[in-house]
Amino acid sequence: MQFFSIIGNSQRLDGGAMFGNAPRALWSRWITPDEQNRIPLACRCLLVKDLDGRTVLFETGIGAFFEPALRERYGVVEDRHVLLDSLAAVGVRHEDIDVVVLSHLHFDHAGGLLAPWSDGEAPRLLFPRARFLVGAEHWRRAQEPHPRDRASFIPELPALLQASGRLELVEGEYSQTFGEAVRFHYSNGHTPGLMLAEAGGVVFCADLIPGRHWVHLPITMGYDRWPEKLIDEKREFLQDKLERDVRLFFTHDHDCALAQVTCDARGRFGTAHEQPALAGALPVSGAAA
Fold it and tell me: What's the predicted TM-score (pTM) here?
């Protein structure tokens, strides 16, 4: 297998919202905010070539589906579909992708499924030959979103996925598409049925752990629906990955794609051997960046 970190459209969002109840005096030491209190966020995807003989994309980022006013509201930096450019840079077109795995259907993780916005045109799916994998529990949430996170969903997307005839709803640790080649873990603290995919010694952390700074257990997002539950899930998740030497892949960390889990004598989790990008074989476990 070959692993590639694929950059999609980036965002600038309010730092206070991203760090929940952590004070600005703390989180601003980690990421410097701009004059509007916003911090830079990646929408990073993971491309794996030759995963069980397939070309697989884990998530699609936010994409360029927003009309200009909404793009401004949600802090999307670029107006073009950056994901498509990033895939092309490693010799892949969206038409070449065999499987797209979606941790959940919030727009900053699934919006890249859609073609760029064009005035007067209805949303349409890209990835014409891909199978789409979504967790069954989260799919139910997407059908009837709670008022708290309704704005995080793209109303047209579930129907488009269903109409494609290529949607698989995943229940449990393994899928029909991959068998035991990809293992799935689940979390409910951010959104019901968040699906975390593990393959080849790497796990896609999605919004359970958006980046390195959220590895510290007390740090959660204001967007999380159930922060205390998320912290408990994160503790169990990180302990398992530490014991099995599974590396963490971050979607929203603006300058780190991959890291190993550490835990100090006080039981505080952290990261080491951080990699800003991936382009081919994984680095040897424990090797310096």
Answer: 0.95
